[in-house]
Amino acid sequence: MAQIQGIDDVFWIFWRTIVDPALDLLMVLATVLFFYGLVQYLGGDLFAKKKEGDAARIQKGKQNIIYGILGFAIMAASKQIVTMICEFFASDCNIGG
Predict the structure, then answer these.
(1) Cβ atoms within 10 A of the Cβ of 48, count?
(2) pLDDT digits (tens, 9 = 90+) for 40-69
(3) How many CB atoms lie within 10 A of CB 63?
(4) Domain ranges, ordered by start, for the chain
(5) How far, in Å, are 34, 49, 60, 83, 97 from residue 46 at the CA level?
(6) Which of 4, 18, 42, 48 has its CA 20 to 30 A from that of 36?
(7) Is the per-residue pLDDT at 10 higher than 80?
(8) How many CB atoms lie within 10 A of CB 93?
(9) pLDDT top residue among 30 and 11
(10) CB-CB neighbours of 84 under 10 Å
(11) Helices marked H in 1-97
(12) Looking at residue 2, what is its pLDDT?
C-alpha cells in the first residue's frame, strides 16, 4: 500500500473506496426502479400482491419511472461534478478507474 502524503490522498482513497462504489450502486438501483416503473406502467402486475386499479398502477408506474430517471441523473451529475473539480485542480486525475 502506498504511503499517504496529504489530505488529497485521503480524499481520493475515500472517494475510490466508499463514494464511487456507493454511487455506482445507487445508479443500479435507480435503473432497476426505472424498469420496475416501466413494467408497472405497461400493465405488468408481476410483483403486486393484491390487484389495484389500472389507473392507480399506471400512476405509480409513471412516478417510479420519473424517480428512476431523476435518481440516475443526480448520480451521474455528481460523478461528473467531482471529475470536473478533480481535473481543474489536478492534472493526473483518475476517477472511476
Answers:
(1) 11
(2) 887 755 555 555 566 777 788 889 889 989
(3) 14
(4) 26-89
(5) 15, 9, 14, 39, 37
(6) 18
(7) no
(8) 14
(9) 30
(10) 12
(11) 7-14, 20-41, 54-89
(12) 60
